[in-house]
Amino acid sequence: MAFAEPEHRDAFRSVSLFTGPAFRTPVNEGRADYVPIFLSDIPSLFLSGRIQLDAALLQVSPPDRHGYCTLGTSVDAALAAAQSAPLLIAEVNAQMPRTHGNTLVPFARLNHTITTDRPWPGHPPRPSGPVEDAIGAHVAALVPDGATLQLGIGAIPDAVLRRLTDKHDLRVHTEMFSDGMVDLSRAGNVTNARKQVHRGRTATSFVNGSQRVFDFVNDNPFVEFHPCDRTNDTALIRNNDSVVANNSALEVDLSGQVCADSIGFSIYSGIGGQMDFMRGAALSRDGRPIIVLPSTAARGTVSRLVASLKPGAGVVTTRGHVHWIATEYGAVNRFGRSLRERAAALISIAHPDHRADLRRAMTDIRHFDMGL
Fold it and tell me: Per residue in 322-352, is it b (16+ CB within 10 Å) or e — as a string?
């Protein structure tokens, strides 16, 4: 983003509710700021006036014959911004998908508009490698028929979804989805017939991926978009049975603490909806909250399963909330286990090159004989 470059530091200051690639350097250099917050809490910041918006910049589909635009591929916190900002400035893009659900913005409400006809920026699927494929197989084995799915975007979620073609009556209640969900829906694996919340519909807050995703959601009543304070409401998530929630991590320690938004003190992303779905899945009948991550980083030289988190690392999912952890070496359930049992389970799915160091560290920290 040009306004976040050093030469503009005296004119602009970005405050992000989730830090993406464009703002990692500005945030970590002090030229921008970051608010740690659950995704489900963001709409209330706007609607309550705790964050007072002067204007909202929106991207919408063209108005229909009744004068309503839709927020298209991303409702999440945009609807709350549209409802609370006194000034709405919108790009009305002829190629923005028209979506169903709670997505409407009256064209008359827009103060200033610019009309465009341009392809929607997408993120084509990234091919998976052997690590992602192995993780996908371990997670797919935990998905029963009739499961309610929450998955994000990336090689690991897509690797999971490719392995669910033998499952029946799947349901989707998620904050986002991408290409893999399109294939399962078109093949009839996703029916949403047994959902307790939004029965018969896939519920999401935003989508991203290739043009296939955008074409799939365009004027498709099978998919409903809702603000993230609804899709990520733990009280609603838990009402669906067999919620299988998949979320990623940067680092997990032997006691079960999950860091997902920073590398030490350096902010990497954000809290997002991880805890919303981890807790919702845990409270769901037969729910399975799963943290997924490759066992190593830096070409195998650094273990992502660690004795202790880096100084400054943020705990997104606490050790009291963690259940399943999956790497390419397997999946283990740490819920209700002691510190010794948790450590042994995590070490069993660490990269073999790092297991001895982890056993040694646990012995030093807790004075447990970890079988050195």
Answer: bbbbbbbbbbbebeebeeeebbbbbbebbbe
Cβ atoms of 80 and 42 closer than 8 Å = yes
Is 130-366 in the same CATH topology as 2-116? Answer: yes
Question: Mean pLDDT over residues 75-86, rounded?
Answer: 97
Q: Mention every residue, 6+ apart, whose C-beta is less than 8 A from residue 258.
A: 249, 251, 252, 274, 291, 315, 316, 317, 318, 322
Mean pLDDT over the full length of the chain: 95
Going by C-alpha positions, the residue among 227, 188, 186 that lies closest to residue 204 is 227
What residue type is 205 in one-letter code?
S
Task: Give me the architecture of the 130-366 domain, per CATH.
Answer: 3-Layer(aba) Sandwich (3.40)
What's the 3-state SS for 141-175?
CCCCCCCEEECCCCHHHHHHHCCCCCCCCEEEECC
- For domain 2-116, the CATH architecture is 3-Layer(aba) Sandwich (3.40)
Active site residue 7: no
The whole-angstrom separation of Cα 217 and Cα 229 is 21
Q: What is the pLDDT of residues 283-319, one digit of tens each?
A: 999 999 999 999 999 999 999 999 999 999 999 999 9
Question: What would the pLDDT profile of 132-168 be if each residue is shown by its tens digit?
Answer: 999 999 999 999 999 999 998 889 999 999 999 999 9
Q: One of 132, 175, 224, 251 is an active-site residue; which one? A: 175
Residue 139's contacts (CB-CB under 8 Å, 6 or more residues apart) are 156, 160, 246, 290, 292, 326, 331
**pLDDT value for 371:** 66
DSSP label of 135? H
Share of the chain above pLDDT 90, in %: 89
